[in-house]
Amino acid sequence: MYKTTLNESNNIQVNYKNHIFSYSTDDSNPNPFEALFAAINACAGVYAIKACKKLGMSFSDIVIETSLKNIAENKFHIFGINGVHTKITFPNGFSEENKEYVIDYIKNCAVKEFIANGEKIDFSISHN
Questions:
Q1: Same structural domain for residues 101 and 45?
Q2: Please, are residues 111 and 39 in contact by the beta-carbon 8 Å criterion?
Q3: Do residue 41 and residue 99 come from a single domain?
Q4: Residue-range definition of the domain harbouring residue 25
């Protein structure tokens, strides 16, 4: 279970197992919406590491950048965002074949797949 207890600050801490995730409403930490896209970037990192381990290659110095595709003038997209782009920069020594292998692995990122193809989720709220 994820648990948040609010206080009089702009910071929000979410407890999960033995982890604490920090968010804010004043840019001192990411807000939850920003963290969603950070999770996509981190997921790409997880899958890049898995692919490199399968190839027996180092994953050090692989750079993964995630940016939002934005068409703010189109009012049919929430927050003006209509896509996410991930750019991978490989260090010297990666063959084109190995780059494609890692990229194909990253395409299976569970977070991306859940957002893009997940089933409809029923959100509910209760109170005491």
A1: yes
A2: yes
A3: yes
A4: 1-30
